[in-house]
Write a structure and sequence with these properties.
By secondary structure, the protein is mostly helical. The protein has one domain: DNA polymerase, domain 1, CATH 1.10.150.320. Helices cover about 45% and strands about 5% of the residues. A two-stranded parallel sheet has the order 1-2.
Length: about 100
């Protein structure tokens, strides 16, 4: 019985990892742009590691994002890509900021 319980827990953990469950996701499965990692962002269709890193660098440089349109300030991000990213990302302050 103990082995079966452990096996169930291991299978569950593996499924959660492959399902992309993360602390940065909201209840709709979108990722909070203000808490996302490079690896999380790079998995989104239309993004790659380079663009994901640029987004994180922009966030570090200018502070948290407050509007998706701010992504247009990142070289390589187009209006069409921003519209696509809205399916996968949301913006919520990660800190107690009043932004």
């Amino acid at each position: 019985m103990k082995r079966k319980s452990i096996l169930i827990l291991v299978v569950w953990a593996v499924l959660m990892i492959f399902a992309g469950i993360s602390l940065a996701a909201d209840e709709k499965g979108k990722i909070n742009l203000n808490t996302a990692t490079v690896d999380q962002l790079a998995k989104i269709p239309g993004l790659n590691k380079d663009l994901a890193k640029k987004l994180i660098d922009q966030r570090k440089k200018n502070g948290e994002f407050v509007d998706m349109e701010e992504l247009l300030d990142v070289k390589g991000i187009s209006k069409d890509l921003v519209n696509n990213l809205k399916k996968y990302l949301f913006i919520k302050p990660a800190s107690g900021c009043n932004c």
